Amino acid sequence: MDQLKLNVSLLRRRVPNLTSAARSVGLRPATVSNLCTGKIPIARAEVRTLVALASLAECSVDELLIKGSEGEMIETGIKVLDLFAPLTKGGTIGFVARPGMGQLVVLSEVLYRLKAQGYATVFLVPEEASVGISDVIDVVEKVCHSTEEVSNYILAEGKKREVVLAADRSIVLSGEIFTLQEHFGSAGIESVTTLLVDPRGEVVDEDEPYGPLDTLWQFDAELTARKMFPAIQPVISTSVVLEGSHLEQTHMVIQQRARKLLRRYRELRFLVQENGLERLPANDVEIYKRGLRLEAYFTQPFFVAEEYTKKKGETVSLEQTLKDVAKLLDGGADGWETDQLLYIGSIEGRE
């Protein structure tokens, strides 16, 4: 059971409005969402929940469950994403942010990097113009203005190479995303990675803004205010790839250690702001300072922002990120000032 997960793609195709459908059969939408993202392991799911979902999808329970190895990650070279909430290949990724938090910059950067890896990158332009949309248009391979145009392009390209589709969440509200996924599935194109954004920022105030997701990237207001970009919240952001069977053991251990330290650090920030660092016990001072360094390390120069930041974009392999984070956690960088870690790539060779 530990190696099983829900067949989220099947659920989306068979049950377009999964949130409402789940509620109609007595299931909590949050429970269904957590099962889809892996926050709740299949081993902890009630049998009646799985039976109800299978009934909604008009399939057997066996069809509803797939081997965990299906959750393959796409390495982006963006440290905070690859470590804490890996991009799920062929999955649906949701950006949760208010306007001005940099979500369109992150979207542009991810598309830029995936295009460089050989992915076909497609952007469905939203009807309502938003600041930053033009930057996304500049980096993608194909710009579409209708779902029909998207469908035609992906049906032509999808059999030759992997596809990444970026779109406004309006296609979720209209149900068009499910129609597209049905077309792709019928044509034998299963691996379309979909990035969903909401430039208006309405998703922040909703419990189920996109329905079940494979990867959730939650942006953080405090990190944004302090200009710590990309302002991804490492404690809340998550991915189905985080299920233990999908990650190398080293990745899982380091990620869990980093998340635990950052969670405690964020609690200590309030105490330090209120009472000062000198009031903390020695052990907490160490945690606080290492948290500061980790937080700084996860800032990163982006290629799409070079013109504005005057800093060269940096790519850091997952392997190197794991080495760097382990060093920071174990105290190997305790002699570093926080400012030395801001907006760099790897720490290797910088001593």
Primary descriptors:
single chain; 351 residues; alpha/beta; 434 Repressor (Amino-terminal Domain); Rossmann fold; Bovine Mitochondrial F1-ATPase, ATP Synthase Beta Chain, Chain D, domain3; 3 domains; 11 strands; 12% strand
Structure write-up:
The chain folds into 3 domains: 4-68, 434 Repressor (Amino-terminal Domain) (Orthogonal Bundle); 73-246, Rossmann fold; 249-341, Bovine Mitochondrial F1-atpase, Atp Synthase Beta Chain, Chain D, domain 3 (Bovine Mitochondrial F1-ATPase, ATP Synthase Beta Chain, Chain D, domain3, Orthogonal Bundle). Helix 2 packs across helix 3 (29-37). It is globular, with a radius of gyration of 21 Å. It has a 7-stranded mixed β-sheet, with helices on both faces. Strands 1-2 form a two-stranded antiparallel ribbon. A two-stranded antiparallel ribbon has the order 3-4. It has helices spanning 8-14, 18-24, 29-37, 47-56, 61-64, 79-84, 103-116, 133-139, 147-157, 170-173, 176-186, 221-225, 249-275, 282-297, 306-309, 318-329, 338-341, and strands spanning 4-6, 65-67, 73-74, 87-88, 92-96, 120-124, 142-144, 163-168, 192-197, 215-218, 238-239. 45% of the residues lie in helices and 12% in strands.
Secondary-structure topology with pairs:
Layout: E1 4-6, H1 8-14, H2 18-24, H3 29-37, H4 47-56, H5 61-64, E2 65-67, E3 73-74, H6 79-84, E4 87-88, E5 92-96, H7 103-116, E6 120-124, H8 133-139, E7 142-144, H9 147-157, E8 163-168, H10 170-173, H11 176-186, E9 192-197, E10 215-218, H12 221-225, E11 238-239, H13 249-275, H14 282-297, H15 306-309, H16 318-329, H17 338-341
Parallel strand pairs: 5-9, 5-10, 6-7, 6-8, 8-9
Antiparallel strand pairs: 1-2, 3-4, 10-11
